[in-house]
What we know:
Elements: H1 3-65, E1 78-83, E2 91-93, E3 101-108, E4 120-126
Amino acid sequence: MPKGSEKGMILFIVIGVILVVAALSTVILRIISNQARLTHHQVSRIQAQYAAKAGVIYALDKLRRNDDSACWPDSGTYTRVMRPSGAGPCVVLEPALPLSVTQVNITVNDTSEIPGTRKVSATAVFTYNP
């Protein structure tokens, strides 16, 4: 084989290797960026779950103490809102809520399956900003 054709063949091999490395780099970077986005979303969901649990604990404490009967009466079904900021009657201000959680809706039902008890549930509203 003449020397010129060997140089041309090596050029094609080098270009091929560069293209394969570039393609692999693109795939790896895409996987890493997707993983970071999914991790951020999972953290937001976990923060919302714990905020909802905190809302239930807060409601149970208010009902147990019975120190705010205007906003937490002993009977009736009602919903209270826990927010990081804002105003209004019977709105629970909790500045320690994570930034992803905009509010927690706490619902106290009038009756439950067990006599003498009440069902308390909470739903956290959260936003995910990529």
